[in-house]
Design a protein that fits this description.
GO terms for molecular function: O-acyltransferase activity. It is found in: Mitochondrion inner membrane; Mitochondrion outer membrane. This protein has 11 helices and 7 strands. It is an alpha/beta fold. The chain has a single domain, classed as 3-Layer(aba) Sandwich (Glycerol-3-phosphate (1)-acyltransferase). The chain is globular, with a radius of gyration of 16 Å. It starts with a helix and ends in a 10-residue tail after the last strand.
């Protein structure tokens, strides 16, 4: 599932459209070279329902997907259960793609939050959208919506579980709102996507 979906998504972003990345090494090094059991949490804006797997597939090297069985390093993510657990086969498909269902509005004490904290505490990678939903550009005018506190809860849970502080790496992308506009069911071509990767953020004093 990871291989097929990543190939399709990469085709959309790098062949049908053009994708460029700034400060990519910061992500690549933390993705592939960090010493486990230190985990990785990436956070980004959420402008399209195709951000993941689209943007993530363009950022992860194809060879890293091909060797997933050896390192288990491809990202985990969470998705509203109305989409990724709408039926038993849909649930199996998303689960095979390392995507777990979460209840929208269910709060930060859901069992899935603890499960993901356990994964991060042993060195896995989790990608989250701190807005908790797609925020259409016309609604936020190119800015982040209100950030929910799931990331903070995740960091505290990892600490409580005895795991080392994970790397928290932000990135911001533009153009996905045109590739897969909000509420539109087709993928568009000829657009430009740009991803700006930031530097790791230290939350140790807050935890």
């Amino acid at each position: 599932v990871l291989g097929v979906v990543s190939r399709f998504s990469r085709f959309v972003l790098t062949w049908m459209n053009t994708t460029t990345v700034s400060n990519y090494d910061a992500l690549l090094d933390n993705m592939t070279k960090r010493e486990r059991p230190r985990g990785l949490i990436t956070v980004s804006n959420h402008a399209s329902t195709f951000d993941d797997p689209g943007v993530l597939s363009a950022l992860i090297p194809p060879a890293y997907f091909a060797t997933e069985r050896e390192h288990g390093g491809i990202r985990w993510t969470m998705c509203t259960k109305e989409i990724c657990a709408s039926g038993p086969w849909t649930h199996k498909f998303f689960a095979a793609g390392k995507t777990v269902p979460i209840s929208r509005g269910g709060g930060v004490n859901q069992a899935v939050m603890r499960t993901m904290a356990e994964r991060v505490s042993v060195g896995d990678w989790l990608h989250i959208f701190p807005e908790g939903r797609v925020s259409p550009p016309d609604e936020k005018q190119g800015e982040l919506g209100r950030l929910k506190w799931g990331l903070g809860k995740m960091l505290c849970d990892v600490h409580e579980l005895g795991g080392p502080p994970p790397v928290v790496l932000p990135f911001w992308h533009t153009g996905m709102e045109r590739v897969k506009p909000y509420g539109v069911g087709v993928l568009r071509a000829g657009e430009r996507i740009h991803v700006t990767v930031g530097e790791p953020i230290d939350f140790g004093d807050l935890v």
